[in-house]
Write a structure and sequence with these properties.
single chain, about 170 residues, alpha/beta, about 25% helix
């Protein structure tokens, strides 16, 4: 359902701006408010936990989907409505065929491998806590593999994505 159909309840960013909290209305304190914070829906963990198979037991998400829908229904019934809802933590536990997990929050590039799973941590756009430059990670996914490369903002702006990665995207 589009934001317009939902009575403006959903806001989409346009032109790199989110209109949910316009500066002219939010510049000064007006009144108390509340928001809702949810964490760790972690789709797949409930089955994995119940079977004791945390390596490959996360292939069923029905319980987590039901609970997430229940949470949304409960929030939608609240009056007055919360100012906003934020979801933090692990979104999924496991997914069939998952080969890599990409994250941030460490404010430096890092990573490792456990069994056949790559953990890739991308450095921050903002404050750097290591020696990495401000940048972005480009991830190319093919049927056979996942290839990723970190680019500084200057590199990406000046040279773009390297030909070897773009060639993988162009192959049909």
């Amino acid at each position: 359902m589009a934001a317009e159909q939902a009575g403006g309840a959903l806001h989409r960013a346009q032109g790199r701006t989110l209109d949910a909290f316009p500066a002219e209305k939010e510049r000064e304190w007006k009144d108390s408010f509340y928001f809702i914070q949810g964490a760790d829906p972690q789709f797949g963990l409930m089955k994995a936990w119940s079977t004791g198979d945390s390596d490959s037991g996360g292939d069923e998400w029905e319980q987590e989907i039901r609970l997430t829908e229940q949470a949304i229904q409960a929030i939608n019934k609240l009056n007055p409505k919360p100012r906003f809802f934020v979801l933090c933590g692990d979104l999924i536990h496991a997914m069939p065929g998952i080969r890599a997990v990409f994250s941030g929050h460490y404010h430096r590039n890092a990573g490792g491998t456990y069994k056949k799973l790559d953990m890739v941590v991308s450095s921050a756009l903002g404050c750097q806590l290591g020696k990495d430059t401000h940048g972005l990670r480009v991830v190319v996914v093919t049927a056979e593999k996942i290839i990723h490369r970190y680019y500084s903002l200057d590199e990406l702006s000046e040279r773009g994505i390297e030909d070897d990665l773009m060639d993988l995207v162009k192959k049909k």
